[in-house]
Amino acid sequence: MTDPLLAFRAEFPIVDRTTYLVSNSLGAMPRGVPDRLAEYVDQWADLGVRAWAKGWWEMPVSVGNEIAPLIGARPGEVAMIPNVTIAQTAVLSALDYSGGRDTIVMTELDFPSVRYVYDGLATRLGARIVAVPSDNGIGIDTQRVLDAIDERTKLVAISHVLFRSAFIMDAAAICRRAREVGALVSLDAFHSVGVMPVDVKALGVDFLSGGVLKWLCGGPGGAFLYVSPEATASLAPSFTGWQAHERPFGFEEEMQYAPNITRWLNGTPPIPSLFAAIEGPRIVRRAGIENVRAKSVRQTARLIELADARGYEVTAPRAAEQRGGTVALDVPHAYGVAQALLANDVIVDYRPGAGIRIGPHFYTSDAELERVVDMIDGVLREESWKPFEAKRGTVT
Ligand SMILES: Cc1ncc(COP(=O)(O)O)c(C=O)c1O
Fold first, then answer.
1. Which ligand 1 atom is the nearest neighbour of the CA of 87?
2. CATH number of 4-24+288-391
3. Which atom of ligand 1 is nearest to the CA of 161?
């Protein structure tokens, strides 16, 4: 049976040259991106400073509108922010932790960068963090998260899909519980948007952030922040800047927050990154996110099957409904094996505690899945991981 999504391979030049299985880290570049960047360069060259008024200032929202349909948001509800750490900092800084609502519920498997900000800033803002532990390093028991959310909870700030294991958190149950006790939810959806359907309205989430560089094939420098209209109407970040002002070009002494999503912006937006970010989300929308998810479930299941047949340790959830787009294989000498694959143009990554992460995407062929597992086999058999392990830790 032919896979209609393979037609999209033509959009991604790198898949002709490599076995590209690392969309969990950096999605392949769409072939339209150089034209977009040329557009940016031409505008800068021809219009000079006038380019700002010809659309550049609007780009955090106009590019956000490209993402909005992929998360069930309406136009004008998503702003582009340089990275998720900054987006989460804005969220954290918008809340008041007094009056007995001083708790932020997280998990111990959330992305470290986000945890560093929360751990570092929360106490200064008068909040305390409750990080729900994991029993197995792969997932977090939903009931434990629900039990941690109570009348003291101001914010639940968790990953939608855990970065190491691709474990899908039960965001619907967590949002429901948060609503029951009057707490807000901020989802870090870096590992869900672009590889599975996400619906901010159905979830009733207050904030949702993610980036375009992985599953959305939009390159670095483009992250996005959805804020519910209710939260935008009632909250404003103290981590802010002139682009959040209602009249940024008034250069007024006092802050007056814009009444819309732009109140979540801060300083000058990274325009080249925003040009680069446009193509990927459009292609994902054309492919159809339901189709992308169906293929991802099928291909990650196939990877697990291939790994099981060889007795490799799989650190990804086995239940399809709990498994995101990545399969991690904790094979012996995983670091060295991953380097040997990279040296042979089979592109994967390695994470301590997870092993070799393999992230097929809608442009991945089934033959590529066989290839990567066969190659892992070969590297282990021939011990060609050895020179890479020997060099580990040295500057390369
Ligand atoms: C779940 C998750 N959150 C956040 C980040 C990083 O966010 P940023 O570098 O955009 O601040 C990553 C990066 O891999 C991630 O996987």
1. 11
2. 3.90.1150.10
3. 1
